[in-house]
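Replying to the earlier thread about multi-chain prediction with a worked example.

Input:
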Amino acid sequence: MPESNNVRPSGGRHSKEDVAATALLILDQFGLPDLTMRRLASALDVQPGALYWHYPNKQALIAELADRILAPAVLFTDESQGWEGRTQAAAARLRDALLAYRDGAEVVTSTLAIGLGATDLIELFAASIRNGGFDPRTARRASTALVHLVLGHVGQEQQRLQYDGLGVVVDGARPEDARRETEQDDSFAFGVALLIRGLTALEADLTSADRFVWDR
Amino acid sequence: MPESNNVRPSGGRHSKEDVAATALLILDQFGLPDLTMRRLASALDVQPGALYWHYPNKQALIAELADRILAPAVLFTDESQGWEGRTQAAAARLRDALLAYRDGAEVVTSTLAIGLGATDLIELFAASIRNGGFDPRTARRASTALVHLVLGHVGQEQQRLQYDGLGVVVDGARPEDARRETEQDDSFAFGVALLIRGLTALEADLTSADRFVWDR
DNA sequence: ACCTGAACACCGTTCAAGT
DNA sequence: ACCTGAACACCGTTCAAGT
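Result:
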């Protein structure tokens, strides 16, 4: 009997949509290393080569997954109080979106590492920072820093989740887990707050006419 | 004729040292994706299986490379003026160390992503920050943020170097290159400065008795 | 102590040909 | 428009056996 937890539509043929959705399922259940073209093909009950009709290569598929993972963070617009609040909220939204899928940060980082989809991500922060009265160049630089901060932090966070997953939880929560989670939350918020605080301080520096404090 | 740009010692046998050094050579010349166990073995004029006598697996080898790449940044101690200067200098040193090898940032990031060698890197910054009078917890958090910032930035930088490598430079420098380089330098220094400025601002906040500006 | 030979269990990608 | 069949050119890792 052919092993098939497959999800083949009644028509018998797949769309780009099917492929991406199934890939996201495998990613979330088994992690990025187990998301292979061959495994994806067999989940779709299809030969490996068939995937290359939908996507030119694996990187393009991963980029599509990155887009879908980021969608909730990018689409959303909020009305928090002040540009600092909106920027912090955007960081939290990005973090939540990455945490929503197993290895989410690695998927996005690897897509960024081949030069795809960076603009949306940076604009996520740049808008709220410009809104604080900063020039576009400053906003772009600070946004880039924020993106690196969030991706790095969530990457580490998800790595620990993997470690913890190896331990067996019988029927209760281990008390260390909760403590570690809040420590992660605090550490994340602290890093983001540092950057934002640096920006406001920079603003103050500039308006007090000492224009080159941060410039080398 | 067997293709062999090999570097086999006169004795006929290799050491961990040989293996790591040759791996670093391949990394620097051809990049991380081309650094395979089989390719490394053939450069050493050895069967692939032989490598597993020296290192238990590929991840361990990569971790060793990460250590060697980071060594110049970690060992060095300087006597810059003030903790801000020392922290900024540490960031510049880390960046230089990563830029010294092709895909250096990716090597270190991937090692960090499997939970190895993180402590040295964080301590690189934590020492100078504690030196500024911050408590260990704050220093650790700020250091972590700085590490993520630097790794993310250099990762992007090295990705662009790869792109540029695809274009053919005939016999002169293209004017855009220099402009882009200084833009990268500035952007890097700006991100680091933002974080440090955030720390000093935080310090000021605390000493002026308003203790919860950054705490949610 | 260090390596060979040979295998195991996989990968991503291509492409003529089918429906 | 979407897929099969079959191949190409690889991977990392293991392990008995050799020197």
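The two ends of chain B are 68 Å apart (CA to CA).

Feel free to reuse this layout for your own posts.
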